[in-house]
Design brief:
Helix content of chain A: 10-25%
Largest sheet of chain B: 11 strands, mixed
Number of helices of chain B: 4
CATH superfamily of chain B: Hexapeptide repeat proteins
Helix content of chain B: 10-25%
Shape of chain A: globular
Oligomer: heterodimer
CATH class of chain B: Mainly Beta
CATH architecture of chain B: 3 Solenoid
Number of strands of chain A: 27
Largest interface: A-B, 23 and 26 residues
Strand content of chain A: 15-25%
Strand order of the largest sheet of chain B: 1-3-6-9-12-15-18-21-24-26-27
Number of domains of chain B: 1
CATH architecture of chain A: 3 Solenoid
Strand content of chain B: 25-35%
Structural class of chain A: alpha/beta
Distance between the termini of chain A: 57 Å
CATH class of chain A: Mainly Beta
CATH superfamily of chain A: Hexapeptide repeat proteins
Number of domains of chain A: 1
CATH topology of chain A: UDP N-Acetylglucosamine Acyltransferase, domain 1
Chain lengths: 292, 257
């Protein structure tokens, strides 16, 4: 039997683990690291300064680590780091970071990206999130652990998607989504809003029974009636909240402090706080040196 | 010598300029012409009677010059200095050529239908669908998932908000939103970036208030006639009126009949 997997181009200076599977018509650029057990199916190409962990799967036609679509990007050596055990569907695209946005796009572990997803520059996707078909994640977005983003959701740049929240299909997201909430459009496909608690999310978070009870109470209070969110947060915090409930209050307060309900707008033009957390020390030092 | 990867398939007999780069697994069909300075990444497919101008950058997985029935018989002209991103499809027109101007950024997974005419300096966000035979004027910006119907015109400097459906001609200078779309106002930010003065923007805003007033139908021909008498001074308002007048007249004639 002839080896059908020979037609591929792997740059000699790329670091590909011996048991990573690189299929036919794949193209791997010079500054790429691919961990053990990762599978690249046909026509996947990996460019840029990209580090991919172990046991990821990339379906046909993925383009990983290409230059961002940001007009300010000048072609500098910015990074893309992908963790372990992620699944990327067909034609998924992930871009590297930009110089003005923190130099890094970071994807954690155990995420699922369905066909046609796009993760833009300078995004931080934490762990265990699900992205449906054709989800467009614009630049500078943070998606926290366990979020569920259904098909055809477009997320505005600089938004934050709270942990264990859900966004319904075809919903335009223009502001931060609080943790544990269910955000979707009404029956006519208009007026996207928080419309309840994401029950599977609360279950997945495995909170202590007391903490869960308090969290449910707080979420009910925050998104139930017409009182201004800020007033309600103040009222609730006066009564004393702790644990996850306090974290949700803090999340909402930060969103209100941002621009149009987007906290991360405050980091526009500079690096977000996560950049220091996730950037490898060597690169962080390099970047600091070039900046100073 | 052009830098053509040994893994690329180049069938064209037209000369390929020296500074062109073609990546591995790309396919250049027999009747394709490539201008100087083009960068064609890996896994790109260019077929049909397609002509690329100078300095275009085609990213991986893009397909240019294919037709909707899968044959390779159409015509497609791409201008200069366009960035055509990953997974973009530009169809070739069988009866009428598809034309893309200069300096456009066509983002991931967008589609340009057969026979569409795209102007210059446009930015088309991810998954923009430009229908067959539609016309996009200069400096248009589209939001993600914008859907432009066949045979409609999107006026110059207009911004289409994400998830818009452009089901009829869209005026120039506008911000449009919704499905079917409404004119939400003047696209002042884009106009400012494109060097319009405050006077122009104010004149346009005043005209927009009278003409559209956040309705989602064609404009009133009476208002147009009145504005025409007043607005002789500002050329941009005249351009706006000229572009929407035929449709308004048509509607008026139908109402009178």
């Amino acid at each position: 039997m002839p080896d059908v997997e020979v037609t591929r181009q792997i740059d000699p200076s790329a670091k590909v683990a011996p048991d990573a599977k690189v299929s036919a018509y794949c193209v791997i650029g010079p500054n790429v690291t691919i961990g053990p057990g990762t599978v690249l199916r046909r026509r996947v190409c990996v460019h840029g300064h990209t580090t991919i962990g172990s046991e990821n799967t990339f379906a046909e036609g993925c383009v990983i680590g290409n230059a961002p679509q940001d007009l300010k990007y000048a072609g500098g050596p910015t990074l893309l780091i992908i963790g372990h055990r992620n699944r990327f569907g067909r034609n998924t695209t992930v871009h590297v970071g930009t110089e003005t946005g923190g130099h890094l796009t970071h994807i954690g572990d155990d995420n699922v990206f369905q066909q046609g997803c796009h993760i833009a520059h300078d995004c931080y996707v934490h762990d265990k999130s699900y992205f449906g078909r054709n989800v467009l994640v614009a630049g500078h977005i943070c998606v926290e652990t366990g979020a569920v983003v259904e098909d055809h959701v477009g997320i505005h740049q600089f938004s934050t998607i709270g942990r264990y929240s859900r966004i319904g299909p075809c919903t335009p997201v223009r502001r931060d989504i609080p943790p544990y909430t269910d955000f979707y459009c009404d029956q006519t496909g208009q007026s996207p809003a928080v419309r309840g608690i994401h029950e599977p999310g609360i279950k997945a978070a495995k909170l202590a029974p007391d903490e869960e009870k308090e969290l449910r109470h707080i979420l009910g209070e925050l998104f139930d009636d017409e009182t201004a969110l800020e007033t309600k947060i103040e009222q609730l915090e006066k009564l004393g909240v702790e644990g996850e409930a306090a974290a949700v209050c803090e999340f909402c307060r930060r969103s209100l402090r941002g621009v149009y309900g987007r906290y991360r707008e405050l980091f526009r033009g500079g690096a977000p706080p996560e950049a220091e957390l996730f950037l490898p020390p060597q690169q962080l030092a390099d970047i600091r040196r070039t900046l100073s | 010598m052009p830098a053509i990867s040994p893994l690329a398939i180049v069938e064209t007999s037209a000369p390929i300029p020296d500074d062109v780069r073609i990546g591995p697994f790309s396919y250049i069909g027999a009747e394709v012409q490539i201008g100087p300075g083009c960068v064609i990444d890996n896994n790109v497919t260019i077929v049909g009677r397609t002509t690329l101008g100078a300095k275009n950058h085609i990213f991986p997985m893009a397909v240019i010059g294919t037709t909707e029935d899968g044959s390779e018989a159409g015509e497609c002209y791409i201008g200069e200095a366009n960035a055509i991103r990953e997974h973009v499809t530009i169809y070739a027109g069988a009866n009428k050529a598809t034309r893309v101007g200069n300096d456009n950024l066509i983002m991931i997974a967008s589609q340009i239908g057969p026979g569409a005419i795209v102007g210059d300096h446009g930015i088309f966000d991810n998954l923009t669908q430009i229908g067959p035979g539609s016309r996009i004027e200069d400096y248009v910006r589209t939001g993600a998932y914008s859907f432009i119907d066949p045979d409609v015109t999107v006026g110059a400097y207009t911004f289409t908000v994400a998830y818009v459906r452009v089901n009829r001609n869209a005026p120039p200078f506008a911000t449009i939103q919704g499905s079917p779309f409404r004119v939400r106002g003047v696209n002042a930010e884009n106009l400012r970036r494109c060097g319009f003065g405050n006077d122009d923007i104010r004149a346009l805003k005043n005209a927009f208030r009278e003409l559209f007033n956040d309705t989602n139908g064609p404009c009133d021909a009476g208002v147009i006639r009145r504005l025409k008498k007043l607005a002789g001074t500002n050329p941009h308002v005249m351009q706006l009126i000229q572009s929407i007048e035929p449709e308004a007249r048509q509607v008026e004639a139908q109402d009178n009949a």
